[in-house]
Amino acid sequence: MKVNWEGVYPAVTTKFTADDQLDLEMFETNIQAQLSAGVDGIILGGTLGEASSLMEDEKDTLVKTATEICNGQVPVVMNIAEQTTKGAILAAEKAQKNGASGLMMLPPMRYKADDRETVTYYKAVANSTDLPIMVYNNPVDYKIEVTLDMFEELIACENIRAVKESTRDISNITRMINRFGDRIKILSGVDTLALESMFMGAGGWVAGLVCAFPKETVAIYRLKKAGCYEEALEIYRWFLPLLELDINAKLVQNIKLAEVATGIGTEHVRAPRLPLYGDERERVLRIIEEGLATRPELPDYLNL
Hints:
single chain; alpha/beta; TIM Barrel; eight-stranded parallel sheet
């Protein structure tokens, strides 16, 4: 299925049972909620998907299951977060075999590759597959920045099509558009900068709190796209305290707690992560409860 790299792409959480197995029933419940809300794709195995703690067979199961659930309605994108080029090529191959329509791809894990090594890594994987690739550019969390000069080299690979822009430098969107036009599709990767990024020219949003609030997230995107800026801003301003739960070291626990509150998830995480407790949990619950108490009535955003 073609990936357009526009619109709302949830970076879905991985659902676990109390005994640390994949919870495919709740996984389907959540993805069905995303589809009903009107999302444009599903991303698996990202930071929110607890990628570093997933077993290889679990990744295979998630891609196969998500592809079956989506059934051609939207593309399924698998994240690649590997320590070696060999491992990344194998992961891309398996993702395609299991039904993924595209890849999101981080730079090498653990080893802090320099610019030349990073470009070579991306090119090697891109040249090994015909799946379209979105570069995940998050130097804040992963310590390697894919610069504009590096993108100049990467676009020689036709299937490197998009960037998840998570540098936190919103002017980087303008720099990319000025230099590459629409050759590289830009999706905001930071919830608290999403609407601002779309106003600056990003065509999509790789979203986190969408996992718990899919309709509100899609409504913001659709309203902005339709030119209903005040309506989009009103929802976004309500959403901001919740969106700030995404820019936190415990974003997985935060968002899973929000999923519980909206009935489309559980708190189960994989160790060494543990569910929130004590004052920290109470603080996050207060934010979620305030959001639910003031949740806005949404317009008919799917028919704008």
